[in-house]
Each structure stands twice: as C-alpha cells, then as structure tokens.
Amino acid sequence: MNSEPATPRLAWSLLQPDWLEVCKAARQPAFRARQIWKWLYQERVDNWESMTNLPAAWRKELAVSHPLTPWAAEERQVADDGVTKLLLTCRDGQAIETVLIPADERLTLCVSTQAGCAFGCAFCATGRGGYVRDLDAGEIVGQYMAASRAAAPRRITNLVVMGMGEPFANYDATLRAVRIFNDYDGIGIGARRITLSTCGVVPGIRRLAGENLQVELSVSLHAPTDELRSRIMPVNRKWPLAELLEACAEYTERTGRIITFEYTLVDGLNDSPEHADALLARIRPVRGRVNLIPLSPVEGYEGRTPTRATCEAYARRLSQGGLNVTLRQSRGGGIDAACGQLRLRRSAART
Ligand code: SF4
Questions:
Q1: pLDDT per position as a tens digit, 264-297
Q2: What confidence tier does 1 reach under pLDDT thresholds 50, 70, 90?
Q3: 109-158 pLDDT tens trace
Q4: Quick one: DSSP state of residue 129?
Q5: How far is the CA of 59 from the centre of ligand 1 (A)?
Q6: With contact defined as beta carbons under 8 Å apart, do 164 and 339 qualify?
Q7: Mind listing the pLDDT tens digit for each residue in 46-103?
Q8: In a 10 Å sphere around its CB, with 0-12 CB exposed, 13-18 middle and 19+ buried, how is residue 72 labelled?
Q9: Residue of 9, 131, 153, 330 with fewest CB within 10 Å of its CB?
Q10: pTM of this structure
Q11: Ligand 1 pocket mutation pick from 112, 114, 119 by most atoms within 8 angstroms of CB
C-alpha cells in the first residue's frame, strides 16, 4: 500500500500534548516530549541535531516531519528610539514583519498573524497590500524566536498581536500560538502581558470570552459614528458599532477584564471636540480605557498627523468625561514603523 508522507509541520506549531502524540506515534517514551519542549523553549535551539539526548535516527525523522526552519531576516531596520523591525521570509517566500519596541525595562514584541490582510483599514499599509494567506502557529511563534535572538541579551517581556493581519480572522492558529507563548514551562510570557488586537471581528470577541485566558483585548475603533467608521474601516459595515460595543460589554462582563479601545487621531477627520463627545457617549457603558495614537504617516494615505495641542485637547475632553485615557507617542520614527509598510515597500520594489 502506498502511503503519502505526512505534510511537514513546523515544530513551533505544537503544544506539549501534541508532542506526547508525536512520541506515541514514533513508539518513543513520553518523557521525550518534555525533552523536546526543553530544547525548543528553554535551550532555544534551532536545529534537531543539537538535541543530543534524543536518538539520532529519530532526530533525522523529526527534522523532516517537524522542521525548525529559521527565518532569513532579509531586512532589519533600527530606529533612533530603538524600535527594531524585522522583515522575515516564510518558506513559501511570503514576507512578514515583526517589531521589537523597547520602553524602559519592558521590551514588547509585535507579531503578525497573516501575510497581508483582507480588512482594508484606510490608514494601514498591510490592508493596502491585500490578503495573501494565514500564518500557521509555528510561523507566529517563529517570529518570537527570531526576535528574541535579535534582542539578546535583552529578554522580550510583553507581546502584542497587532502586526500584519487580523488575529480573529486566523483564530485557531493565533490562539494556539498564544498558548505556546504563555506556557509556563516554555516561553512563559504571562497572559496579562499578552494583548490580542482586533479591528472589530465580533465572533472572535465572543469566542475569546469563553477561552478562560487572562490575555488583554484591544479593539480598534478610530471613529465614533458608523458613517465615519464604515468609511475608514470596512469591517464596520459587517459589524457596526452597536453590535461591536454590545459584544465588548458582554466580554467585560463575562471575563471581568477591561478592554482597551485604540483610536488613531487623524487631522480634521476624527479629532474634533464633537468627535470626542460622540466617542464618550458610545463607550461610556463599556468597562474600558482609551489609547489615543496620533497618526503615523503611511505611504498612499493622505491623512495628516494632528498637532500635539489637538491631541492633548481630545485626550483632556475624554478624561474630563470620566474615561481612562492615554495619549501615546508615535514610535519608530525614521523607519517604516506602521504595520505593513516595510513589506509593502519591499514588494513594490520587486514589482
Ligand atoms: S489595521 Fe489590522 S485589520 Fe486593519 S487592514 Fe491593517 S492589518 Fe488588517
């Protein structure tokens, strides 16, 4: 009988129980699963040859069935403020981005979940490039492995799933990767130091509420009315604000956690006192806080960054209305810091 060899699966895609299954199928004792886990996430080796306490013949088989293909970091950009962007190449040639953001004693990694994105938000370079494919969990975890080598000797302390792609459009792979990041015997990033960010995919918010994970959730709003939000975020036509905020309220009730609402301030578009008042009225009933981010210039989008005074006035108005507000600084000046810009520029150069 002819049996097709199983499709290789990146070693970083597997959870601890999956390794037990691999051991069972190979008639290896269960303790080998822990040995592999230790090599992968405590020793952080990137080849099977180095796992010297595993049988040599089995290592050769594992190298084929569960490759540990390191990324080729084709391009690395470091900004004056220390923000580092890596452009990584997948095995099929797709380029994805991952970004390291230092802030005092914290070092945050921003990972991507898709090559490209189908959601088409107006001021996002990734959305402009269109959707190509979902990343698998190993490609998401692999970004961490590459970035942690680039960051050494510093350790990554926080993780945000805010890079290229919409995490809830690739829900299973994203959650699998989050469980690997969070595994106490491995990478061990505490759930509260992991943030998942969505542009407003309501079924994903509802599903996450039932996962029993203490991760942080952030929801991009960027506009206080359906009319404006649908113009700059097409996702709003499918899940308008009322439905989105109802799901957010249910999420906070069910999990006891609060939500961070992201709001990018664009000059003359969504930064007036009236916009602030409308936003206040919309989100006051939900347990949340607001992050205001002045627009970072994006190639191909004509919106401008508001003045600092306008941003501060907007923040003050929300704060006086009783909201917990943070006005963020744009980071990564001098490099293609906004998500997808580096990849977009590289693929434009290719064509
Ligand atoms: S902001 Fe996020 S969801 Fe929107 S187009 Fe960009 S990657 Fe996709």
A1: 999 999 999 999 999 999 999 899 999 999 998 8
A2: very low
A3: 999 999 999 999 998 888 888 999 999 999 999 999 999 988 999 999 99
A4: H
A5: 39
A6: yes
A7: 899 999 999 999 999 999 999 997 676 568 888 888 899 999 998 888 899 999 999 9
A8: exposed
A9: 153
A10: 0.92
A11: 119
Question: Which domains, from first to last, does the chain contain?
Answer: 11-65 (1.10.150.530), 72-350 (3.20.20.70)
97 is catalytic: yes
Closest ligand 1 atom to Cα of 198: 3
Nearest to residue 13, comparing CAs of 184, 133, 137, 134? 137
Sheet with 216-220: list strands edge to edge.
Answer: 72-78, 84-89, 95-103, 106-110, 158-161, 194-198, 216-220, 259-265, 288-294, 324-327
Closest among 221, 192, 348 to 279, alpha carbons compared: 221
Give the CA distances from residue 168 to residues 63, 122, 208, in Å, rounded to whole numbers and listed in that order.
31, 19, 9
Cα of 127 vs centre of ligand 1, distance in Å, is: 5
What integer is the mean pLDDT of 335-348? 55
Q: Is 339 a catalytic residue?
A: yes
**Strand boundaries in 135-225, DSSP class E:** 158-161, 194-198, 216-220
**pLDDT, tens only, 160-219:** 999 999 999 999 999 999 999 999 999 999 999 999 999 999 999 999 999 989 999 999
CB 102 within 8 A of CB 83: yes
Give the residue whose CA is nearest to atom 3 of ligand 1.
166
Gap between the Cα atoms of 15 and 26, Å rounded:
17
- Side-chain half-sphere exposure of 331, counting CA atoms within 13 A: 16
Helix then strand then coil, % of the chain, to nearest 5? 40, 20, 40
Residue 22 in tokens = 């691999």
Which tokens hold the place of 210? Answer: 């039932």
Q: Cβ(121) to ligand 1 under 6 A?
A: yes
- What are the beta bridge partners of residue 264? 293
Residue owning tokens 């990018």: 264
